[in-house]
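User: Thanks for the earlier help. One more: HNH endonuclease. Can you show the sequence and predicted structure together?

Assistant: Of course, both are below.
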Amino acid sequence: MEDPPNCALCGRPIPADVPQSLHHLVPKLKGGKNGPTVLLHHICHKEIHATLSEAELARDYATPEALRAHPRLAKFIAWVSKRPPGFLSRVPSKRRARQR
């Protein structure tokens, strides 16, 4: 039996029965429609989009390494890494201050 793939953000395995999604490293709206994607736990994918705007993703966070280095995502990874691979939870809404 083949080992499950690992999440590109948290590094935990993604069993076949766990919600998962493909993340475009450059958002589709910013020209990444046919660009590289990575497989993530659905909860990890939601956290990325709750943390960063499409512009920030395209400009500064277009690699898994850059995503893992973001302070809020690093804190999330430390937290979620202690949970089982099938862990599901609501992801908080955006915490970024709205720019006016």
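User: Great, one quick takeaway?

Assistant: DSSP finds four helices and two strands in the chain.
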